[in-house]
Amino acid sequence: MVSDRIQKLVDHFGDRAILDDATLEEYSHDYTEVLDVVPDAVIYAESVEDVQYVVRFANEYNVGVTPVSGRTNGGGLAVPYRGGVILDLSRMNKIHVIDEDKRYCVVEPGVTYGKLLEELERRGLCVSIPRSPVSKASVIGNLLITGYGHMAAKTGFQSDLVTGLEVVLGSGECVKLGSASLTKSWMSRQPLPDLCGLVLGWGGATGIVTKAGISIFKKPEYSDLVCFGAKGKFDRSLFQLLMRLLDLDMIDELTCCTWGHPYLDIELCDPERRDTAPDMFFNLRLSATTKSMIDCKVNAVIDHIKMEHDRNKSIDLIDLSKEQKESFATIPLPESKRIATLAEEKALGVTNPTAILPLVNMIDILPKVEVVLQRYGIPLMFFLNTFKGSRLCSFMVHILFDKEGGIITSLLKEIVETFIESEGVTWKAPPSIWALEQKHMDGGALQTVAKIKQLLDPKGIMHPGQLNLPPTARC
Ligand SMILES: Cc1cc2nc3c(=O)[nH]c(=O)nc-3n(C[C@H](O)[C@H](O)[C@H](O)COP(=O)(O)OP(=O)(O)OC[C@H]3O[C@@H](n4cnc5c(N)ncnc54)[C@H](O)[C@@H]3O)c2cc1C
Fold first, then answer.
1. What is the Å distance from ligand 1's center to 440 Cα?
2. Does ligand 1 lie within 6 Å of residue 32's CB atom?
């Protein structure tokens, strides 16, 4: 039975307000440990005015609003934790600007990577692309969760590429942030203090982004992959090799993945998995504007790996067949349904607790995480990548778990504690993990988060529960 206040909203939006059980159920959950919560309604916005209408209505009638774009985050971030309405932005899918000279574009929240890439490729341009299903994953959702793309070792977090935002704040006002607040250009986050930080990484808890400017690049004429594998542990020599490779300052993307991780269909390399197959698989993406430049980069990287191989026989360059290489090198990656399929086949949940930490600390953190997982009978599977030529990496632990088993809460708690011990901070964390982390956080920082939230969303209607602040920090 729908309440009177929700009925009012439904009356306004007509067939763009959905109440049927199957749709509500679909928006109530994802594959993670986050508990299902059925929304009261799903509203499809088609304009900034629609977004403002919903936010103003929510303020007046005290209804929670959870914004979603492509709902592919896979981290429990788009669930309406405290009920209320889902505001689905996927129909706001216009590309407003592709400025080839100034190298930025301006998109709405429903613009997927697939759609943007099609337009960019026609112009010989590109953007940093996540491994997501690009027909659904939105550019704005990815920027907001500070994601990573295939150029991360060169360009940093996806949120680093934002050049301006248009946001409907929790109060209902629509504001422009960055150079677009002053000129017609969306080129930069200047001139004011960087106000984009009031929205990026907040998971919709302060406002709804209705447009974003993002840096775009010339599509490289040449690109190549160098892959190598390693047996055994992620040891000091491997780490040193990665440091040396990063110091070459030539790499667009550096990833490391354990065998069996669904992000890279690693089995493609060796479907039978021979005994000699590596336990870890390293993948370096290189690009250049001329053939001689790409050859030079590839040779430099291979020389370094060979040198390390001479010292440490557990490191090996891997020969890939042409098809295998193409399937890894092609960007966007072919749409992979493996995460969902694995989970569905086995009726399991999937969660990916992730730490951002110094690469050097991987030597310390890996055995500790492995010990924790072993206690729960779960094999270690992880995916690692580096950012902006720096010594910072993300370490994503992939866990398939039994939704009925009840162990996941304590397992995640132990993993987050291990992250923090090794100087890791969580990335793209759902509220339960963020709450664990808050226990270790500086009180002043938490109070500041609470004050900003109060200022931008005075009635607390924006994605309620997302920040999971402790009562003392609620202002
Ligand atoms: C197989 C697979 C591979 C993936 N690989 C990667 C990867 O390599 N790198 C990576 O970064 N991610 C990856 N992802 C995660 C995800 O696909 C991307 O980050 C995606 O771009 C997120 O966009 P979305 O539209 O799906 O966001 P959603 O899931 O819709 O939303 C993400 C968060 O942002 C909020 N939000 C959404 N839109 C708005 C808005 N307009 N205003 C305010 N808040 C909003 C939501 O409430 C939620 O908190 C992967 C996911 C899958 C399933």
1. 27
2. no
The per-residue pLDDT for range 215-256, each reduced to its tens digit, is 999 999 999 989 888 887 778 888 889 999 999 999 999 999
- One-letter amino acid of 167: V
Report how far residue 395's alpha carbon sits from residue 354's, in angstroms, rounded to the nearest whole number.
5
Q: Which of 273, 246, 249, 247 is nearest to 260 (CA)?
A: 273
User: What's the full length of the chain, in residues?
Assistant: 475
Structure confidence by residue, pLDDT tens digits, 186-213: 999 999 899 999 999 999 999 999 999 9
* C-beta separation of 74 from 179 below 8 A: no
Nearest to 318 by CA among 364, 256, 363, 377: 256
Say how many Å lie between the CA of residue 170 and the centre of ligand 1. 20
Cis preceding linkage at 191, omega within 30: yes
Q: How many angstroms is it from 388 CA to the middle of ligand 1?
A: 21
Quick check: 29 and 425 in contact, CB under 8 A? no
- DSSP letter at 363 equals H
Tell whether the model's pLDDT for residue 474 goes beyond 60: no
Gap between the Cα atoms of 338 and 342, Å rounded: 6
- 9 in Cβ contact with 63 (< 8 Å): yes
CB 355 within 8 A of CB 386: no
Candidate of 132, 328, 468 to mutate for ligand 1, largest count of ligand atoms within 8 Å of Cβ: 132
Rounding to the nearest 10 degrees, give the CA dihedral for residues 144, 126, 288, 142.
20
Does this model's pTM top 0.85? My answer is yes
Ligand 1 neighbour 199 (Cβ under 6 A): no
Question: Mapping DSSP to helix (H, G, I), strand (E, B) and coil, where does residue 432 land?
Answer: helix
Query: Phi and psi at residue 197, in whole multiples of 5°?
Result: -65, -10
